[in-house]
Amino acid sequence: MKRAAAFLASFLLAALPFGASAADAQADAGSAAESAKGKSIVVYFSASGNTKAAAEKIAELTGSDLMEIVPEEKYTEADLNWHDGESRTSVEKDDASIRPAIKPDTKNLADYDTVFLGYPIWWGTAPKVLWNFVEKHDFTGKTVLPFCTTHSSSEGESGRTLQKLSGNKGTWKDAKRFPEHPSDSDISSWVNETGFALKK
Ligand SMILES: Cc1cc2nc3c(=O)[nH]c(=O)nc-3n(C[C@H](O)[C@H](O)[C@H](O)COP(=O)(O)O)c2cc1C
Questions:
Q1: Model confidence at 2, in pLDDT bands (50, 70, 90)?
Q2: Is 176 contained in some domain?
Q3: Residue 24: is its pLDDT beyond 90?
Q4: Residues whose CB is less than 8 angstroms from the CB of residue 47 and which lie 6 or more positions away in sequence, other chains included
Q5: Quick check: CB of 112 below 6 Å from ligand 1?
Q6: What residue owns the CA closest to ligand 1's atom 9?
Q7: Confidence of residue 30 (pLDDT cuts 50, 70, 90)
Q8: Per the domain annotation, does 113 fall within a domain?
Q9: Are strands 114-120 and 171-172 parallel, antiparallel or unpaired?
Q10: Angle, CA of 21, 27 and 31, to the nearest 5°
Q11: Residue 142 sits in which domain range?
């Protein structure tokens, strides 16, 4: 199982201060935003905060910008009740055509070369909010690194599904699954593997 194969190595990140002194040209050159890999952004949807916390950590460790995908209609606790077959999320799960409306972007995706794309797993896949987002955006020329938080499921086919919905535009990496409350070292291990960690 991929989950069981969780990363063995753990990496301690040096306490690289953000906004490091201008004199520290080395650190500036290490910024993801200015690296040869170009500009990066962490885009995420989070209904109850778990994916948000992971997204913020990834943005910190990679020097990426951050953008939340915000549904026009916030998900209430009742909406998120998976025990209720009539709840909003249950209804959305059962209708492949549903695309919950999302608020306008606060950043221009066209400005970025790399997109970390975060979401919770709902019913074994990415929420329909994500389906809407990837259908609306053009990932041509971008590298997309999907990641998710889940209670216990694997990432499943969630990344591939989003890739297909995007029209297979861009270069999509395998989705990374995190638990609901990943440790800093869970996240830094993966970030180091991606090659997008800020240089120390
Ligand atoms: C409607 C719904 C369906 C869910 N389905 C699954 C699932 O299939 N497998 C799983 O492991 N966790 C499932 N979860 C748990 C979430 O994936 C998990 O709590 C996640 O970290 C929530 O992220 P968030 O706080 O960013 O919204 C589900 C949660 C909700 C609300």
A1: very low
A2: yes
A3: no
A4: 75, 80, 120, 127
A5: no
A6: 153
A7: very low
A8: yes
A9: unpaired
A10: 115
A11: 36-194
Does the beta carbon of 166 lie inside 6 Å of ligand 1? Answer: no
- Atom number in ligand 1 closest to CA 119: 26
Quote the number of domains for the chain: 1
Is-contact 188 11, C-beta < 8 A? yes
Coil/strand/helix, residue 53: helix
Q: CATH code at 129?
A: 3.40.50.360
- The answer to whether residue 6 is domain-embedded is no
In the chain, what is the greatest distance between 2 CA atoms, to the nearest angstrom? 59
Which pair of tokens denotes residue 29? 């050159």
Q: What's the number of CA atoms in the CB half-sphere (13 Å) around residue 72?
A: 7
DSSP character for 197? S
Q: For residue 87, give both structure tokens.
A: 């709840």
Find out whether the beta carbon of 89 lies less than 6 Å from any atom of ligand 1.
yes
Which pLDDT tens digit goes with each residue over 43-58? 999 999 999 999 999 9
Distance of CA 80 from the midpoint of ligand 1 (Å): 9
Contact 159, 175 (CB under 8 A): yes
Which 3 state secondary structure label does DSSP give 46? coil
In terms of DSSP H, where are the helices of the chain? 25-29, 50-62, 88-94, 128-136, 158-165, 184-194
At 147, list the tokens: 């990641």
Name which residue sits closest to atom 3 of ligand 1, judged by CA.
122
